[in-house]
Design goal:
The protein is an alpha/beta fold. Helices cover 39% and strands 17% of the residues. The two termini are 34 Å apart.
């Protein structure tokens, strides 16, 4: 296994709160009781907290629902132990004010904050990959520099020119490097950004051989910058007492799906044409029964952009699949299921207690942080 930040065989298990209108009993069929309201999404977070999940992803998109950062601020005092992985699209907020907002949330939650860096197009705007990733890289460096700099702060970059008398408003509760940064993206520019700046590289479901190759290549990219990174796996899960029941639940989930409606739902996402989504679509097209490999079912991709597959099976089969991912080097799982409240219960009942879990940031706090090397002006361009 390639060198990673967390060589211990431990994992962080996170759930998902459907802030962006992504909760169904039947995929593609809207249900008012599952809409992305503050109450419903809050119920998911509170349940995951009570059941012992260590983190929860709060997604972001220009879709009717909840703003991830504002929602996380409301949830922090209502939870007791769970971290919140807040998705933030780089460029939406002026970096110094974003740094202050994150510091505020980190203090409210007493360090239970992680950040999911997003570099897709801003709502209503289309830009090149090079521009988006260069801006995201600059913002990440600003956030990191504000946390580690005392006194006045100067930044003269390609996108931002900043002169501040103090960095005190940006100081987070977490003193050992600040909140962990998670990042997902399969394009070369995306991988380079994560290798240089982030802590956890997130992958969508693919076959195990592809996952192993991505972990190997990303470990090499990070090593080129004298860094170690961890790896995460974002997937849905359908676990039942028997494999037959799990497969039947998967079939039921898409039993009322209209193909045109599914395509419409996928197209509304800002990442619908990304390289990662197209790779998942290609894998699904090669399968005759929607199973990419044993227990990895791609039916969700018929009506969902982004994470498009589910681990399907009985408790032992699901656990074995997760253990294989851990053997490859995965250290963070971000899971979900439909409906999210019910599947959250089922996974916690059947599988969660059997996994060797910890929070990645608890391990980070026992180590010296990865060095942060700012990009040169030439590298930014």
């Amino acid at each position: 296994m390639p060198p990673i930040r967390t060589p211990e065989r431990l994992c962080e298990v996170a759930w998902f709160s459907a802030l962006c209108s992504d909760d169904y009993e039947y995929l593609g069929i809207p249900d008012d009781s599952l809409r992305s309201s503050y109450q419903h999404c809050g119920d998911i977070v509170r349940k995951a907290d009570a059941l012992g999940y260590q983190n929860i992803l709060l997604p972001s998109g220009w879709i009717a629902g909840q703003d991830a950062l504002a929602f996380a601020c409301a949830m922090a005092p209502q939870t007791t132990q769970i971290n919140q992985l807040v998705a933030l699209r780089m460029g939406e907020i002026w970096p110094p004010m974003l740094a202050r907002a994150l510091a505020t949330l980190d203090h409210i939650s007493q360090g239970r904050l992680c950040i999911n860096i997003i570099s897709s197009d801003l709502p209503g705007q289309k830009e090149s990959n090079e521009t988006r990733y260069a801006r995201a890289s600059e913002i990440i460096q600003i956030l990191q520099a504000l946390r580690r700099t005392d006194g006045p702060f100067e930044w003269q970059g390609d996108f931002y020119q900043i002169s501040l008398p103090t960095t005190e408003p940006a100081k987070t509760y977490q003193q050992n490097g600040g909140p962990l940064m998670y990042f997902g993206g399969i394009s070369p520019a995306a991988q380079d950004l994560c290798a240089k700046h982030c802590d956890v590289f997130l992958m969508w479901p693919e076959t195990e051989d592809r996952i192993a190759e991505t972990i190997r290549s990303m470990s090499e990219k990070a090593a080129a910058h004298d860094r170690l990174i961890d790896f995460g796996f974002r997937a849905h899960v359908i676990v039942r007492e028997t494999e037959a029941e799990a497969r039947a639940a998967a079939d039921r989930l898409i039993s009322k799906l209209d193909a045109a409606k599914g395509a419409e739902i996928k197209a509304r996402s800002q990442d619908a044409q990304s390289i990662g989504v197209k790779r998942q679509d290609a894998l699904r097209a090669q399968s005759s029964d929607l199973y990419l490999e044993p227990h990895l079912w791609s039916g969700i991709g018929l009506a969902r952009s982004g994470c498009a597959s589910a681990i399907v099976g009985d408790p032992d089969q699901v656990l074995a699949k997760l253990n294989r991912y851990m053997d490859l080097g995965i250290r963070a799982f971000i899971l979900s299921g439909y409906p999210h409240l019910e599947e959250c219960d089922l996974f916690a009942q059947h599988v969660l207690p059997k996994l060797p879990t910890t929070r990645l940031n608890e391990l980070q706090n026992r180590r010296v942080p990865n060095p942060v090397t700012p990009l040169t002006t030439a590298e930014r361009k």
